[in-house]
Write a structure and sequence with these properties.
single chain, 167 residues, alpha+beta, 5-stranded antiparallel β-sheet, 3 helices, globular
């Protein structure tokens, strides 16, 4: 779980990035699962963009893997009226930037890579801190006052689930 302070730091980085590259029309940090972390995307649905980013990321990861080019780093899409650039941001997030067609693509990459690295550091550190803050599992043989009551649910194992990236 990411704290409000960490989320604000990510949002601040998105605002600074948009100030450094005036041709940016939007910036979004999202998890690789397609959930929004923070956004500055006026006029664009951030949830929809995050979901599309996750879908395109899945394809980009597969292409990089299939061609032996290593892990995903970035993806650039050029449309008639602008660019969509996605950069790796740590272990579990991505940075997606929307830019006008007149943007200097070299500058876009330079600033996007830097911001992606900063956002990745913030989110990876927040995730590590959250893991460390979780209570340690009780040692074997330890006695608890009363066992918690839970409803049993059926779980699907990873062997039973086949995603688009598994095939």
């Amino acid at each position: 779980m990411v704290s409000e302070k960490d989320l604000q730091a990510v949002l601040d980085e998105l605002h600074r990035l948009r100030n450094r590259v005036p041709q940016l029309t939007g910036a979004l940090a999202a998890g690789v699962d397609g959930l929004v972390v923070a956004h500055d995307t006026p006029g664009v649905d951030p949830e929809g963009l995050a979901a599309l980013t996750a879908a395109s990321l899945g394809v980009a990861v597969r292409v990089a893997d299939a061609t032996g080019n290593g892990g995903f780093r970035e993806l650039l899409v050029r449309g008639e009226r602008g660019y969509v650039a996605t950069y790796a941001a740590g272990r579990t997030a991505v940075l997606t930037l929307l830019a006008q067609d007149r943007v200097n693509v070299g500058r876009l990459h330079l600033e996007g890579r830097r911001s992606g690295a900063r956002i990745g550091e913030l989110l990876d550190a927040a995730e590590a801190a959250a893991r460390a803050a979780r209570p340690a599992r009780r040692a074997l043989g330890a006695v608890s006052p009363a066992p918690p009551t839970r409803t049993r649910t059926t779980r699907t194992t990873s062997a039973e689930v086949r995603t688009a990236t598994d095939s």
